[in-house]
Amino acid sequence: MTGKTAIILGATGLTGSILLEKLLQDERYEKIKVFSRQHVRQQHPKIEEFLINLFELEKVGNLFTGDEVYCCIGSTQKKTPDEEVYRMVDFGIPATAARLSKLNGIRTFEVISAMGANENSRFFYNRTKGEMEGAVMEHRIENTYILRPSLIGGEREESRPLEYAWKKIMNLGDHLLVGKLKKYRSIHPETIANAMIYLANSQYKSGRIESDEIKRIANRYKE
């Protein structure tokens, strides 16, 4: 029996890079397809890279085949101030990936959204994330998991001073968030990666998964 093939979008990002490293070490996976505009740091025989413009993912739809898709694509309004471009990243890429997954018979699709995603929100960021979730769910892929983390901890390569300061505040205040407020505690990218791998290899119910539930799922993951 051959191992599985996973597809990662966003493998050079904070969560995606951790996810890639874990999948490379996981014996259940034979091949990791990475669709990206730049090379990943790792060199490994399992990795098959496709350097493309992700806005043109449809052009390589015939190569978008595997057992599961991990969509870790995302930007910020500061990094991408042009709302049209921002929407192309945070809505367009995941929506296209979901459509190609359905067309190519991929049965598991996971995407990182955000806490507060709401297609009816008056805030552009939350509204875009909510509309992306709706577009993904429309394809009715058998195992669809939309992860909604709170503020993601960890160190990014690019400088985000305001985000860094807010993370420090959240780290100090996390212990004050109890009961129904626990889901607002910050979350580490490795926790998200662990949860994603567990979900892809379990019979967990499809749907939207809030930040506190992501943490509970991650605790079930065994390396």
From TrEMBL:
Pfam family, one: NAD_binding_10
Gene3D superfamilies xref list: NAD(P)-binding Rossmann-like Domain
Organism in which the protein naturally occurs: Christiangramia crocea
All copies of domain NAD(P)-binding, residue ranges: 10-145
Protein's name in the database: NAD(P)H-binding protein
